[in-house]
Amino acid sequence: MLSVAACADESGFFINQHELNKIQKKHDDLIILDVREPHERSGPLGKIEGSLNIPLSQLNLLVQNPGLDKNRHIVILCRTQNRSQAAYHYLKDNGYTNLYVLMGGMSEYKNE
């Protein structure tokens, strides 16, 4: 059952790769936010093409961007989802509403 995909307009969900693909198709302006350090993206786990890389330690740069719609859909990922969860709470506390965390992070993501 795809409860998350069925509730894609709600926020605060963990999603898997299949659900990420569905959200990407539904929301053209989706941001895939990779909160890993830049050197991690060139490592064996790679990166999701088109993702925005802002390390967790610099996430305040995103929050300080007055031009970013806080209702825009954002999928957050890291290596295993620990930093993603921290980023989720930081963004939520700063007024962002449509947030998702990729379960398992890049450790479980399969580049297709």
Please give a structural write-up:
- It is globular, with a radius of gyration of 13 Å.
- It has one domain (3-108): Rhodanese-like domain (Oxidized Rhodanese, domain 1).
- The protein is α/β, with parallel strands linked by helices and 112 residues long.
- It has six helices and five strands, in the order αβαβαβαβαβα.
- Strands 1-5-4-2-3 form a five-stranded parallel beta sheet.
Quick structural gist:
The protein has 112 residues and is α/β, with parallel strands linked by helices. The protein has six helices and five strands, in the order αβαβαβαβαβα.
Give the helix/strand class.
alpha/beta
CATH C-level:
Alpha Beta
Largest sheet: 5 strands, parallel
Average pLDDT, rounded to a whole number, is 88
Residue share in helix: 25-40%
Number of discrete domains: 1
Say how many strands there are.
5
Q: What is the succession of H and E elements?
A: HEHEHEHEHEH
Q: How many separate helices?
A: 6
- Using the CA coordinates, give the radius of gyration: 13 Å
List low-confidence stretches. Answer: 1-11
Corresponding CATH superfamily = Rhodanese-like domain
Q: Beta fraction of the residues?
A: 15-25%
Gross CATH architecture: 3-Layer(aba) Sandwich
Query: Globular, elongated, flat, extended or rod-shaped: what is the shape?
Result: globular
Separation of the first and last Cα atoms: 22 Å
Fold-level CATH name: Oxidized Rhodanese, domain 1
Sheet with the most strands: spatial strand order: 1-5-4-2-3
